[in-house]
Structures are given as structure tokens and as C-alpha cells.
């Protein structure tokens, strides 16, 4: 993958874990996934972008 072996990838992942902490990693993964999803949609010609704030998520949970 991009000319990197297993050891450099493990080192990079450990550095990310140290910098952001274990609590933030799921949020970072979710944001990255949504970004990639929106990026793919833009190439498919769909102009809609999925934007959902914390207030929207909280109100949907209360219903």
C-alpha cells in the first residue's frame, strides 16, 4: 500500500492513538467515513451532501 510496509503503518497508527487518544478515534473514523462517502457521491453526480449536526442526532434519538 503506497510502498509502505507493515511496521511503518503500525508506527503511524500508534502515533495517531497517542495524539488523539482512544476516546476520539471513533469520532475521527466516523467523520472520515462520511467525508469519503460525500466525496464519492460528488463524483457520481449527486449534489446532495450529508450534513448532520449534533442537534439533529440528539433530536432523532429523543423521538
Kindly describe this structure.
The protein is mostly helical and 63 residues long. The chain is built from three helices and no strands. The protein has helices at residues 6-20, 25-44, 54-62. The longest helix has 20 residues, at 25-44. The chain is flat and about 40 Å long. The termini are far apart. The model has no long low-confidence stretch (mean pLDDT 77).
**Helix-strand string:** HHH
Shape descriptor reads flat
For the residues shown, what is the average pLDDT?
77
**Tally of separate helices:** 3
Q: Report helical residue fraction.
A: 55-70%
What is the rounded distance between the termini?
44 Å
Strand fraction? under 5%
Radius of gyration, whole Å: 16 Å
- The chain-level structural class is mainly alpha
Overall strand count: 0
Give the biggest sheet. none
Low-confidence stretches: none
Primary descriptors:
3 helices, flat
Task: Write the topology of this structure.
Elements: H1 6-20, H2 25-44, H3 54-62
Could you provide a short overview of the structure?
By secondary structure, the chain is mostly helical. It has helices at residues 6-20, 25-44, 54-62.
Amino acid at each position: 500500500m503506497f510502498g509502505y510496509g507493515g511496521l511503518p503503518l503500525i508506527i503511524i497508527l500508534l502515533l495517531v492513538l497517542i495524539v488523539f487518544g482512544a476516546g476520539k478515534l471513533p469520532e475521527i473514523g466516523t467523520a472520515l467515513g462520511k467525508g469519503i462517502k460525500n466525496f464519492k457521491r460528488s463524483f457520481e453526480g449527486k449534489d446532495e451532501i450529508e450534513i448532520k449536526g449534533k442537534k439533529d442526532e440528539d433530536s432523532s434519538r429523543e423521538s
